[in-house]
Amino acid sequence: MAKGDKINFSTPSGFPEFLPSEKRLELHLLDIIRRVFESYGFTPIETPAVERLEVLQAKGNQGDNIIYGIDPILPPNRQAERDKSGETGSESRALKFDQTVPLAAYIARHLNELIFPFARYQTDVVFRGERAKDGRFRQFRQCDIDVVARRELSLLYDAQMPAIITEIFEAINIGDFLIRINNRKVLTGFFKSVGIAENQIKSCISIVDTLEKIGESKVKQDLEKEGILEEQAQKIIEFIKINGSVDEVLDKLKHLAQNLPETEQLSLGITELETVITGVRNLGVAENRFCIDLSIARGLDYYTGTVYETTLLGHEALGSICSGGRYEELVGVFLGEKMPGVGISIGLTRLISRLLKAGILSTLAATPAQVMVVNMQEDLMPTYLKVSQNLRQAGINVITNFDKRPLGKQFQLADKQGIQFCVIIGSEEVAAQKSSLKDLKTGEQVEVLLDNLAGEIKRRLT
Length: 462
What we know:
Layout: H1 20-39, E1 43-44, E2 50-52, H2 53-56, E3 69-70, H3 76-85, E4 93-95, H4 100-109, E5 118-122, E6 125-127, E7 139-148, H5 156-172, E8 177-183, H6 184-193, H7 201-208, H8 211-214, H9 216-225, H10 230-240, H11 246-257, H12 264-282, E9 290-292, E10 303-312, E11 322-327, E12 341-347, H13 348-357, E13 371-373, H14 381-393, E14 398-400, H15 407-416, E15 421-424, H16 427-432, E16 434-439, E17 445-449, H17 453-461
Parallel strand pairs: 1-5, 8-9, 13-14, 13-15
Antiparallel strand pairs: 2-4, 3-4, 5-7, 6-7, 7-12, 8-10, 10-11, 11-12, 15-16, 16-17
Helix pairs in contact: 1-5, 5-12, 6-7, 6-12, 9-10, 11-12
């Protein structure tokens, strides 16, 4: 760059940058999510932001266009050195685009050090090279949990997922939401029973999964474009529109299975779905928090059983705010053995962006400080420092104002940052071992003994 050239310091498209009030909201939500995850025994791990490219491409159909490859930028005299090092092929590296493929590699690397079923959570940042747009980012934080077993995994782990989703979103207090549950075996079994060829089933599932985006008529058209007969397409539409209470849908499915040919997989899916629903109820999840929705398919090929999508009622345009499901082959891909798992993911960056825009959430105060000790006199700074430390030791977050400025200006500064209380100490207060405590929300100002100051602030904060 030539001297004097202007540097473009704007953020790259799709890479979010948070103001303090936004970052504090993210950390607050992460605290809630982590607490719920850990209450169910999930343990934290962290995988590298960078993985070998061949690891990220192990499932084949993840879409090379969304992977950010990385290469070191070396001066010319070191390029030959890099070429000699052989950092090509299996040494090619890229940024992880999700948490699941890195989890599979993590388990393969630490297989003999882990205890199974292995229940882990991650709240890492991932990267995707897709087109940035409203609510879609190239860098974003995902909050994932997965339980992975060797050979067999109880369906009760599937039942725990709606309980965890419910606890998180009730704690965040975002309003009414609905966890929609289905089972991929129900879909694939039904498709087989109406004569859909094995090689057409995956594309049919992908099309069904677009129902909410493109509508019933377009789904039917797309099915027919895939070679599905009009009569079959109509049966599929009627099937995924089956509704009612959870028990009513289960009864309709059982009745249907009794009157169709080749229903072994359909019946297995219904049995699994009923087992999961029973577990969800036994975990105390309210009936209005979940339903069976036969249109939920989760387009990704690796889901094989239970699938979930969570919708914020009244704000359906936001799309799924938490989704996931059960898979059989994904995690064992590096080991060549069956390692069933089930998990869910919250795209936290996208969720925060959408909820803030919709006015469902608000940012927090710019600072975590609850109190400002104002600067009345420079010679009293030792007292201000001592009082500040005493308050911190009592568990109160404090800013000490080191700059001397008019008292009104200090109040404005505190108020602008969302600080509720100001502690005012002048020469007279020092002599009497008192302080004035001003509540910026109410305008009330009271005298408090210094020995009682922490207790009084705590009382007023609660």
